[in-house]
Amino acid sequence: MSEKPEKLIDKKGIRLDGRKADELRPLKLEVGVLSNADGSAYIEHGKNKILVGVFGPREMHPKHLSQTDRMVLRCRYHMAPFSVQERKSPAPSRREVELSKVIREALEPSVFVDLYPRAGIDVFVEVLQADGGTRCAAITAASLAIADAGIPLRDLVVGCAAGKVDDTVVLDLYDAEDKLGVADVPVAIMPNLNAVTLLQMDGILTPAEFETAVSMAIDGCKKIYAMQKEALRTKYMTVKEEAEE
Ligand code: ADP
Questions:
Q1: What is the pLDDT of residue 244?
Q2: Which residue has the higher pLDDT, 14 or 90?
Q3: Closest Cα to atom 11, ligand 1: which residue?
Q4: Does the predicted model carry a pTM greater than 0.85?
Q5: Less packed terminus of the chain by CB within 10 Å, N or C?
Q6: To the nearest whole number, what is the mean pLDDT of the chain?
Q7: Positive or negative, the Cα torsion across 167, 173, 176, 182?
Q8: How much distance in Å is there from the Cα of 117 to the middle of ligand 1?
Q9: Is the confidence at residue 151, as pLDDT, over 60?
Q10: From atom 13 of ligand 1, which residue's Cα is the shortest distance away?
Q11: Is 130 in the pocket of ligand 1 (CB under 6 A)?
Q12: Cβ of residue 128 lying under 6 Å from some atom of ligand 1
């Protein structure tokens, strides 16, 4: 990475990528992009590009991992070797193992797992391009892909981070802000249920800054939630119109 610029936010409160403190990066969401998966979604969140494929509910392999009273949700977060500037080793990293776990735990409360005893669903997250905040963008896309697979959900799960850059609390950090900033707080919520399913913090914040960051991230999630629902509507309204023709 190049040297840290003196200021990541100018006197007018504008960040290096031109955004205001409480502004999201541009987003694009698409549902049903893979014909060989039961459900799929693609997200562009700023420069992040992430594809998610979901398989199931289906018989668990290996069988001994199945549960007699519930469905098992498995998740694999993987970064393509070309997803970051310096080639990432294709071998699974500790970070990918950790992110697979936190993404699974963020999604699981939304799924009615007791409807499918002994079955499993697999969620494959492929990060094609990474620019900070991939765990949150992956959760947003994975929840859409699970919905696209027709799996009953309590609500969609949506992720967004906030954090501290220089001395300001800002929404939706990109890679340089994540690495050169003071703190990062990724959050995922089920907006209709007022439930938080992911809350992490990397860095140092005062209690007041932490509260501001969490409420800013929740506001960001709510904006993305509207786009998630629109992406589902776009796919299924088109399918319905085609069926009616
Ligand atoms: P998140 O992507 O959820 O913010 P991290 O905070 O761990 O997760 O990573 C921040 C960013 O650092 C990633 O989005 C990516 O842009 C970059 N990054 C992660 N792993 C690597 C790597 N192996 N090489 C280069 N950059 C990486």
A1: 83
A2: 14
A3: 132
A4: yes
A5: C
A6: 96
A7: positive
A8: 36
A9: yes
A10: 132
A11: yes
A12: no
List pLDDT tens digits, range 32-65: 999 999 999 999 999 999 999 999 999 999 999 9
Q: Is residue 22 part of a domain?
A: no
Instruction: Give, for ligand 1, the residue of 84, 88, 96, 98 to mutate: max count of ligand atoms closer than 8 Å to Cβ.
Output: 84
Q: Output the CA–CA distances (angstroms, integers) from residue 136 to 53, 54, 69, 77, 216, in the order listed.
A: 16, 17, 29, 12, 14
Q: Which domain holds residue 65?
A: 27-244
**Residue 13 within a domain:** no
Identify the CATH number of the domain in which residue 98 sits. Answer: 3.30.230.70
Confirm or reject: Cβ of 139 under 6 Å from ligand 1.
Answer: no
Please say if the pLDDT value at position 131 is more than 90.
yes
pLDDT tops 80 at residue 1: no
Distance CA 104, CA 144 (A): 14
Q: How many helices (H) and strands (E) does the chain have?
A: 4, 10
Q: Closest ligand 1 atom, CA of 138?
A: 3
Mean pLDDT, range 120-149, rounded to an integer = 98
For residue 18, tell me if it sits in a domain: no
| Token representation of residue 129 | 């391009």
Look at ligand 1, atom 25, and give the residue with the nearest C-alpha: 84
pLDDT over 80 (residue 237): yes
Describe the chain by its helix, strand, coil percentages, rounded to 5.
35, 30, 35
Does 181 contact ligand 1 (Cβ within 6 A)? no
Which residue's alpha carbon is nearest to atom 10 within ligand 1?
132
Within-domain flag for 214: yes
Find the helix packing angle between 134-148 and 207-244, rounded to 10°.
30
Asked if 104 contacts 56 with a C-beta cutoff of 8 angstroms, the reply is: no
Q: What is the pLDDT of residue 238?
A: 79
What pLDDT is stored for residue 159 in this prediction? 98
